[in-house]
Design brief:
Two copies of one chain form a homodimer. Chain A is mainly α. Chain A has twelve helices and no strands. Chain A binds a DNA duplex (30 and 30 nucleotides) through helix 4.
Chain lengths: 238, 238
DNA sequence: ACCCGCTTAAAACAATCGTTCGATGCGTTT
DNA sequence: AAACGCATCGAACGATTGTTTTAAGCGGGT
């Protein structure tokens, strides 16, 4: 009962494709499940059905493979996030602005339609897993690829919930990230605790449950009385 | 700029104590920061200023050391959680019941007063870090030591917010865990994004910010129309 | 003084890690 | 047909992992 998914990877081979793309897909999944340090190059190449030296040949190093995964995934995902963010608008028969923004941030991180092999959820889980490990490269990759988008969303959230101070805004965005990541990182815990009622693998359910919870949390009144004035004055640019 | 805390551990020796307790303290902190697999026995013993073989001598194995940390921390922490939970009551000049319950769950996980060396926050961070790694022992330890308490809190939350279905209740408890854990796991991300405004190391601030956010989220209306009736009927025992 | 337990010390253990090397096969170009 | 570039292969590299082994140190009881 150790790592069933890993075994399945060995049995069900990827559809016919070249070594490079096969490695990218398998590595994304295995890294997401077991962490970067938790997967050896030997496990990885065995699961992908390629030679041990293939990783270093095609990507230079194990870290190069990780960077390649980011290069492949980040751009389309951020583009979809920003596109959905720019589509947000107040309309009579649409959800409130705040819910739209939060959904625009979360949904592209879970969407499984785009690519093969687990899709976006695997990549989100990968980022969540990496955020724990002390991998300097991973930290740089995340910062480089996601800082701009995150700041855009914090700014949009600030406009949707103008009563919050800057600190409160960042805190609540941080809690949003935590709820999202933890759902990806540790899906077994809630499935076990809830006796199977909740299934984090069901991305539809995660989205449905998370958006109203987080949005309502954002609407909680500001407690920081000293910064309520600062919030009115200060936040203009960005 | 790699792992400054690790270096500090090397310089500032623990106060005079025997090898066993010194190892426990150093290991808790190092495991919390770099993960179980991320810390070698050699790093660990060097940081504690003891011989390499001390871990295996006193705890049998590296995993035995981890189990010992759990044995030491879990009981007092759960006792404090349950004690604070039983103290929750509706009074005129106290926070609402829901806020009290959430604070009773979170505060003992952050309290730094109880023990030396980082205190509870380090242990919470350790659990969060372990929840990512695929360490079978860690999963068993968490399940064995925290399942009962978690179920008690879910039940209490269900009474405080009776409009939720069982699934929604577990989901929101799951988001609560995520927000709490992520604050411990990845404190640098929000500090960086917020340009230093938010400091997750300030446990007081985490508590102040988190409780109203989560509590308000719990009060979001139920979306699961089919289970709203089930919530009225079903949830009685436990 | 001797022996005994408990703890610490240094050294070595087998196993596994990421990476590199040289040889081989295959397809295209000259 | 010869020569070349590219991908893959098995094998080995040095380094590091957790653990074990063996010897030495120390304190108290007979």
């Amino acid at each position: 009962m150790g790592h069933p998914i890993e075994d399945r990877t060995l049995l069900v081979a990827e559809p016919a494709s070249d070594t490079k793309t096969r490695l990218l897909g398998v590595a994304e999944r295995l890294f997401a499940e077991q962490g970067f340090d938790g997967v050896s190059v030997r496990q990885l190449t065995a699961a992908a059905g390629v030679n041990l030296a293939a990783v270093n040949y095609h990507f230079g190093s194990k870290e190069g493979l990780l960077a390649a995964i980011f290069e492949q995934r980040c751009r389309p995902m951020n583009e979809e996030r920003l596109r959905r963010l720019s589509d947000c608008a107040e309309h009579a028969h649409r959800p409130p602005m705040l819910e739209q923004i939060i959904a625009a941030f979360i949904a592209p991180a879970l969407a499984s339609s785009a690519d093969r092999g687990g899709g976006r959820a695997a990549f989100t889980r990968l980022r969540a897993t990496l955020s724990v490990e002390h991998n300097e490269l991973a930290r740089r990759l995340i910062a480089r690829h996601f800082d701009a988008t995150s700041q855009r969303f914090v700014a949009a959230l600030g406009r949707a919930v103008p009563h919050l101070s800057r600190a409160e805004l960042y805190w609540r965005f941080h809690f949003l990230l935590g709820a999202l990541y933890y759902s990806m990182i540790n899906p077994s815990r809630i499935a076990y605790l809830s006796d199977g009622i909740c299934d984090p693998a069901d991305v539809e359910a995660v989205l449905t449950q998370m958006v109203p919870f987080i949005a309502t949390g954002f609407r909680a009144p500001s407690l920081d009385r000293s910064s309520r004035g600062r919030a009115r004055r200060g936040r203009r640019g960005e």
